[in-house]
Amino acid sequence: MSKSNLQPLKKGNLSEQVYSAVRDALMDGKYEPGERLTISGLASELGVSITPVRETIFRLVSERALEMKAATAIYVPEISADQLREIQTIRMLLEGKAAEVAASKVTPKQLAKLEETHKAFQETAAKNPMKAAYLNREFHFALMEIAEMPMLYTTVENMWTLMGPLLRVFHVEAPSRDLTSGRHGHFDVLEALKERDGAMAQKAIQDDIALGLNMVAWIEARALEAPEPGARVLSKLS
User: Fold this and answer.
1) pTM over 0.70
2) Is residue 110 part of a domain?
3) Does the residue 208 lie in any domain?
4) What is the DSSP code string of 164-199?
5) Cα(27)–Cα(104) distance, rounded to whole angstroms?
6) What's the rounded Cα separation, in Å, for the pair 199 and 192?
7) What's the start-to-end Cα distance of the chain, in Å?
8) Residues 68 and 94 both lie in one domain
9) Of 166 and 1, which is predicted with more confidence?
10) pLDDT in tens, 32-81
11) Mean pLDDT across the chain
12) Which long-range contacts (C-beta less than 8 Å, at least 24 apart) are formed by 16-21?
């Protein structure tokens, strides 16, 4: 298990804290697809006993964010092209609805915060793809928060948990696209929110998510490059 820089937890509801810490680490791409995790290793990093870590592992396995191949064999899943297509379809439907609702609820303060996040995202894209990926997620999650639809938010959050490790590899290995153009999808989202146009906001965020489908072609290309049947589609990062 690679060092993920998890921080020791404070006293309180340890089970929820451990769950949030490990789930956030998955979303942030701190683990690689196919990486093996250990209960003892996570407990040591977080400064807790193995009990709340074991509870977290079982919870994340039930959410398909982790795989348990044996009692002590816990792995970060490797997402297939078909699984990614399904994840992106779910995101387009749910985040699209959230954007539509957000257009009727957004306040000037919330809009300004979204604009600030997108500006930071653009400024970071060329220099630090990993940080840009984090800021991109912040933009999408902030938009959903404006919609005030907690069950929708939680469902989409689970999709991002599944995608996080894959995004880590993608942003490091795949050719970067221009994120500084004024045609980036976030601009259309912001414009729709200013106009309070729900249909426009829905289409804009769905178009932005659709661009992520280039990861599907990337996964398929990696599969063709695998040296032998059964070989891992995604290579370990140095």
Assistant:
1) yes
2) yes
3) yes
4) HHHHHHHHHHSPPP--SSTTSHHHHHHHHHHHT-HH
5) 29
6) 8
7) 13
8) no
9) 166
10) 999 999 999 999 999 999 999 999 999 999 999 999 987 778 999 999 99
11) 86
12) 17/52, 18/42, 18/46, 18/48, 18/52, 18/53, 18/55, 18/56, 19/55, 19/56, 19/59, 19/60, 21/46
